[in-house]
Each structure stands twice: as C-alpha cells, then as structure tokens.
C-alpha cells in the first residue's frame, strides 16, 4: 500500500452484506474532528440552511449531486456536499437525503453538535464541515470507510477471487472515469468457469461491482481516487465475498449477488477459460479413415450413450420436480428462515397457555409470554375470523423488512404520561416507518391496520410499527387495487376503502392522520367530545376540524401537556393530521411529503379540506329519533347493496 494510502484514517466496520441491503441502511457516522457547536449558535443555523439547500439541489440535479456554502462570517461558514447513488431515482434520492440530514442534525443523539460530519448510507452520502473541504477534493483523511463482508468468505482460492474482483473494479473505474458524465458504472464478471465456493457452500457464478465518483471530478482525478482504493482491496478484503469502500469523493463495492438497481450493466467481463485445448487429430482421423472394428465400437458407444442420456434426463426431471416441491413448501412455511415448533414445545414454553403469561388479545387470538428467550406465541381462536393465511402473511412480510421503525414483537404497555417531545418523536418515527413500507423497501406494502395499538414503544420510547397480519403486498407498477374484502379497524379506515374497497397507500396516510390527531389530543378518534353544552362535535376528526374552522386549532391539544410545549410544532401536527384525513385521496400527501412537512414550516402547508366521516352529536340524536338503534351506527340508504363480511381486527389488552 502506498504512503498516501497509509496516511488515511480508516474506519473498519463489520457490515453484513449477506443479502440485499435495505435502501437506506445506515453505513456509519464519521466525526472528522472533536470541535463542536451549540444548537442556538449561528453555525447551527447555517448548517440547517445548508442541508435544506443541498437536498433541494440534489433532487433537482439529473445526477443527484450538489455542493453548497452558507454563512457570511468565515468562522461560522459551513460547506457541504451530497451525492446519491447513480442507479436510484429522484424520489429515493430525496428521501435518503432527508433522512441523512436528520441524522446529521443529531436527532438520534449521535451527531448532535459535531462540527464536521460525514454520513454514509447505502444509497447516498452527506458531508458538512466548518472548513472548506470542497477546495481540496484530493484530501481524504478521516473520511474513508472500509466495510468487508466478514459473514461470508470464499472457501476455495480466495486470493484469485479477490484478484478477479479487483480486475472488475478496475474495468468499472476506467469506464466511469472516461465514458460516463455521471462518473458512475456498474457491471458483472462471469466466473462460472471457476470453482469458487463460499463458507456457506454456495457456488459463485458471478461477481457484481459498482463504482462512483462525484460528477465534478475530471477523468484523471476520478480514476486516481478509485485506483487508490482498488489497490488496497487485496489486503483489506482478503477472502471476503463482498466489500465496500465509502469516501466523500468516490466509492466502490463488489458482491456475489446483484445489489444495484434496474440500471443495466455497462461492463461485462468473462474470466478466460483455463481448460486445455482438445487433442490434435491424427492424419488418418483428418482424412476420415476408419480402422478395423470401429463400426462395432461405434454401435456400442451409441447404445451406451443413449441409455446414459435417458437415465440422466429422468434423474434431472425427478430432481427438478422435488426441488420445486421443496421450494414451494419452504416459501409457504417460512422462506424467511423462521423455525417451526410443535404443540408440545409451545405448551411447555407457555405453561400450557397459562393465564398469568397472557400478554393481550388481538385479532388473531391471545398472546403469551414464555419463559427464557423473549418471544410471543399466538394461539388462533376459532371465532377470530382469521387463520393460518393471515398469520403466515404477517410473519413473511415482517421477516422481509429491515427498518428501525418496524417491529414484530410486543413491548410492555406504557402507562406513563407522554410529554410533547416523546409524542413528536412517535409521530416522526411512524412516518419514517410508513415511508419505508411505501417507497423504500424492496417490496411495496400497505399496512391496512395502522392504529395506536399497533405502534409499539421500546425502552427509549421510540415507535415501532407492528402487526402485519392484514398487510397487502403491491407488485409491479400498481398504485390502486380494488378488493372485495374490506378489513381494518373502524375509525382508521379511509372512506374510499371502507365504502368502495379502493386500496392504495393513501389508506395508510389517512390512518396516520387519525393517529397524529390522537397523539396531539391524547384521546381516541371514536371518543365523543363533551367539552361544553355548546360543543356539537362528534368524533375527534369533527372536533379538530371545528376548531380549525374557528381559528383555534390549539384547542385540540391535550390539556395535560405543560405550558412549555412548543405551540408551533403542535399547530404543525394538527395541520398535517387534517391534510392526511381529507376525503379525496388525491388531496392527501404522500409519506415523503409528510416527512418533508415535518422538516419544514407550517406556513407553507396547503389548506386542508373537510375530513371524511365528520358529524355532529346532533346528527346521531336525529338518527336515533328516526328509529335507528343506538348500536347500529348511521342508517344506510335503501339502494345501497349489502356489503361483504367485514374482517376488521379489534384489539383488547389486559395487564400481565
């Protein structure tokens, strides 16, 4: 390794790239010095302005790249740079940079107050500093991150494997530097002629690679930046099946699986075959002469080959059929790697489903907490209306998701009073989880049953979306589907879904809006509001809308919150909640819009229209006086057809 490389401060992270990495998996934080700033300083204001400018400029840039400088005084100036991966679209770029900015500002507590920060995500990177690092693109000290995949290694001839991966990275580097204005290249090397196998006994047939430089660099600078890290690969990634190098000005990665997006490979390489040449024919063979007795030998060979081909074909068909059956059963019973337990084991773990181990009662049935390792056991009730299909749907979907705000486990019920900071963190974390489901995960998912009881809190009061039993997977480019079976929870279902069965991401947005208003008010949507005799509001949505129209939206705030609660944030959340519960789904924001609004100013929000399912208490009294029973709800028109059976889940909780 050269002297220049040896001067680099290297941060070695043991990242596990055993499968496709989530779109916005955080790679690492790098704090490049020990200087810091306070949140009420001029430098902090400059950083906030800088990050907003970088995200906007990168989103509008065709190459997902932006640099910026803010501040007048030299001591308080901030310089920044952002770069999105070359194979992601503008929406994913904006979403990734939004989350990176959130981390950079220290909202998770790790980067708070750091004056010089580099943040590496799988799909984007961000750096800001109090010094002008933009003027020195060759300086990489303190910003480099080597991440070998130590979970899977090459068992056979690892040195040659890394050498071939290095060759692939070299070819990609040449292409990115000399043939691409975006300074981005991806491709693969076919090595099926080799005998590479991993420590998990997988046969390696291809090596995939990707390299990228900032588009502002000249071809020579880009090639030099990538070449420095390529030369270090044999020493750093010795025997590993994958690895990644992240730096501000350039980055590279190789794996044994296809990890990049739909961008077609621009470089395809094939390892030269090392098999010996066929033996030379004798002069007699070339002239077509046949020796004595060759006719009988040819007949025997033909018969043997015919029988051998028939046997091999039969074996192939049998093996293929058996493999297909095993794969089908594996997918049905847990292609996520989950274990199957027999009834005896579950009875022993739960003390024969003892009542003292009962956690609660949900749509599937009762849940139990066993001894030892903390898991939850769900027992299906015969009258629950749900079964193995819904349970498997929940297990498989959750197992495929990897996000900080998604969970499948239950947490103890929190009975303590939530202050405003905690409530705002719950709103923000839930929004991030929904954005991941709708846009950023490998599979597009609609939760369909988002409600307060399905947002769990961990020990640090961070929100975790749970219960994916009713979740619906979207395939292809579909944005809306029509279902004949409406399932969910009353009070959280959007009108177009509850009445017409139209299912889209805007259903989750509506449920999120109801949840936001519940968090602000500290009451359920279905609670009746009797604040005064003059108050005619029915549900929480009706009450919040009435207060909005009166110009007193803060009246919807939980009165138990102290006087130091920031009214601006409360007003922002009320406004946002009303935007999410508008009757027309086209008027509701997307979850990406929601996150941007949470980062923005309430004055720039659009004006909400009247929410769906709003009515006054007098409407109920009138309906009852017309002969509608108290438990039957609002009377239907005579022409309305009889709906299908509703499979809504109802959750009831009991203390341990």
Automatic annotation (TrEMBL):
Gnk2-homologous domain span: 25-133, 142-259
Entry annotated with the keyword Repeat: yes
Compositionally biased tracts (Polar residues): 641-656
Listed InterPro entries: GNK2, GNK2_sf, Kinase-like_dom_sf, Prot_kinase_dom, Ser/Thr_kinase_AS
Disordered: annotated segments: 626-656
Subcellular location: Membrane
Primary localization class, coarse: membrane
Protein name in the entry: Uncharacterized protein
Molecular-function annotations in GO: ATP binding; protein serine/threonine kinase activity
Keyword list, A-Z: ATP-binding, Glycoprotein, Kinase, Membrane, Nucleotide-binding, Repeat, Serine/threonine-protein kinase, Signal, Transferase, Transmembrane, Transmembrane helix
Top-level taxon: Eukaryota
CDD domains (alphabetical): Gnk2-like (cd23509)
Ranges of residues in domain Protein kinase: 353-605
Top-level taxonomy: Eukaryota, Viridiplantae, Streptophyta, Embryophyta, Tracheophyta
Topology term for the membrane: Single-pass membrane protein
